[in-house]
Amino acid sequence: MGRAQNPMEFPVATICGMNASKTPPQAAGAAANGTDWRIDRERAVALFGAHAHDWPIEIVEETGSTNADLMTRVKALPRKAGALPRPIVRVAYLQTAGRGRRGRPWYAEPGNALLFSVACVLPRPLEGLAGLSLAVGVALVDGLRSLPVAGPGQIALKWPNDVLLEGDKLAGILIETAWSTDDASAVVIGIGTNVKGADELAARVGALHADVPPQARGTVPTALQRALPNANLTDTLAAELNALEPALQRFGAEGFAPFQARWNAVHAYAGREVVLLEQGVEQTRGVAAGVDERGQLLLDTASGRQTIATGDVSLRLADGAA
Q1: What is the spatial distance between Cα 15 and Cα 266, in angstroms, rounded to a whole number?
Q2: Within a domain: residue 21?
């Protein structure tokens, strides 16, 4: 299945889907049954806030990866702070090569998950990007909590880049850097949010991971529909973009430090015993004590407090943690 070609750009006020006649095969059943799974133009216009009104929004039926699409484009930009005056958003109903952290595939059926990427140039050098994925996580929590969800406090963060709903994985974040200079960095932020179809997704992931040891399987997926029965792509996209716009501006100006307190306030594992795994092997364990001003995990262990930087590690609740 090939990538969508030559997408047009739309400001939010004129957002619409592209290639509407080319329904992805996986979505044919939903379309035939009249299921409302596409992003609704008029509702999107009404819901998008003034802060995001000038962001170009592209919506395509299918592509390999929205992150890869935007990475190719931003790599071609002049390497300077003003190279991209405003972020570009690319949404796809179906990604044939979608991936998560450490190259893991991201499984989603069209209409069940909101899959999009944001390309932007931040006025910060590479080392100034520390904590960006955590700041994006804070924005996603605040955006999703702005929806009329039941028990909004159950939407929380798992270090370093997962959004949880009642302890299960609701959304993931993948950030890639296209280029960096002494005063600017071009990044692409990929976001996948499970909106519907939690049971089917959990069954599929469970079958694929049947031979993986339980502790190494990761967080069980869930969907926003669990807390919001009428959850849909349109409302979810609007909520997330409206929260991302000011967050990216603030991060560009101040880095992660102003997000630290908020991240710690919505930390799902605060005060709980956790283990850190590397390629499925336990490296250390302790009590999660939040993050520092650079977004590093603070872990209270038997030998004292340790600071853990993001890398090729996974965080899990320790066996028996309540």
Answers
A1: 32
A2: yes
238 and 280 belong to one structural domain = no
Alpha helices in 95-156 (DSSP H): 132-145
Distance CA 105, CA 31 (A): 25
322 within domain boundaries: no
Q: Using one digit for the tens of pLDDT, what is the confidence trace for 42-60?
A: 777 677 766 556 788 899 9
CA distances (Å), 275 to each of 186, 209, 220, 286, 314, in order? 33, 20, 17, 7, 8
In this structure, is residue 6 part of a structural domain? no
What's the mean per-residue pLDDT of the chain?
83
Element (H, E) at 189: strand 185-194
Q: Does residue 258 sit in the same domain as residue 282? A: no
Number of domains, the chain: 2
5 occurs within a structural domain: no
Q: E strand or H helix at 291, and its extent?
A: strand 281-291
Same domain for 287 and 150: no
Which residues, 6 or more positions from 61, have their beta carbon under 8 angstroms from its beta carbon? 4, 17, 18, 19, 20, 22, 23, 24, 92, 93, 94
Strand segments, DSSP code E, in 140-184 are 155-158, 162-165, 168-180
Q: Which DSSP letter does residue 228 get?
A: -
Q: For residues 156 and 144, is the Cβ–Cβ distance under 8 A?
A: no
Domain at 221, CATH number: 3.30.930.10
| Per-residue pLDDT band at 140 (split at 50, 70, 90) | very high
Q: Are residues 66 and 187 in the same domain?
A: yes
Pair of tokens at residue 61: 């039926």
**By residue range, what is the domain housing residue 278?**
270-317
**Contact yes or no for 62/87 (Cβ under 8 A):** no
Please confirm whether the linkage preceding 160 is cis (ω < 30° from 0): yes
- The pTM for the full model equals 0.85
Nearest to 124 by CA among 313, 253, 314, 281: 253
